[in-house]
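This is your field. Have a critical look at the following sequence-structure pair:

***
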Amino acid sequence: MKANAQIGLSDKLSYIKALDGMRGLFCLVIIVAHWKLAFPIIPLGWEALQTFFVMSGFLITRILLNEKERKPSFGNYTKSFYLKRLFRIFPLYFAYLLVMSLLRFSMKGSEFIQTQTAELEHSGVWLYTYLYNFKTWFNFKAGIPFTDTPFFSHLWSLSVEEQFYLIFPFLIYFLRGRVLKGVIIAMIIVPQFIRIFGYPYLLSVNPDPDWAIILIYRNIVFQIDALSIGAALAIFNFSWIKRPKFWFNVFFIAVLMVHAFNYPIVRASFTDLSNLSYEIFKSNGQMNVLGYIHFLGHPEVLQFGKQFIYMMPLVNLWCFFMVLSAIRGTPVWKSVLENRFVVFVGKISYGMYVYHFATMIFFMKILRAVLPMNPIDLPYILHFVLFFVYLGCVIGISYLSYNYFEMFFLKMKKKVS
């Protein structure tokens, strides 16, 4: 199979600085979206995470194609790929789970720790086996209520990526030419119909729409198109797309316009969303614009107006054009994506993503212990101040983790041929 001339596969894969910038930027967006106080607000949460799926699809497929170009045996091909992924992903992930498990075991008298780690009791097996994105289904079948705890709720996306790693090495190695391209196209198109027909099926199993939409959002069967769109960037030659930045702007504006169009639909359903802990934005039982902006980052909103049918592929497309612009060397928001600080955040973003929720929960607990009032009741300007203190904590922890823990394994990864 010929290398894709568009991205220039070689023995040494070229570094694309803007992709680290994208990691950094959207990691920060996700952290803001998960922030528990009113401000700052960024109306993109699940949308930002789609960018990581598209990027992963591109980067992993590029690596696999590069390995295949060397014509290795299947054993050496899979050994090289999986060892490199193991050294990058496993140490931090399992160290985090182990620390949380030890906290739960050693602090049985702490109601706070027991509450925050409760999922280890009924979902620990799914966390430790990278099946956590299926726990919504498994736990329902076992009669366990649908719950998330912030220490672990974000880790489902890492399960999706690990499952992607199990599928794609085989596709790339054994398929070639038109067959491979046809499979990728099918993996982009078919999930659109799976979401359309899967939603009513899930409601027939469990009539709770929150349960159904979370399962759709977190399950690789419904998310494989995002990863496959990224893979297409490494497999197809998109030189015929002359102005990717222009099309990025078109789709980005389209996403914002559809969000605006859906405001009345979501507002009319606001009472169904009251369990999402944003009652601070309620006014006379209705949701104001500020509350809607906060809700945009929550996948639960996808159920209203059946947004999972059209909003998910729309967001995936603007992510596609953003990544395409970056690999062409003409990234959108160039001054942001190639900013030194944003690129630095991108390099430590894996740790920031894993640690940020637990850091925030401990941070909020300390605030409530030392402040004479609920942090939500503080002046909004102080919400910003507290956020940047918290962000500094996340960056500091992640920097130390990257340099004194993850780097040990990354050096081992570089030794794998």
About this structure: Residues 17-235+316-414 form one domain. Residues 133 and 156 are 5 Å apart (CA to CA). Confidence is low (pLDDT under 50) at residues 1-11, 274-286.
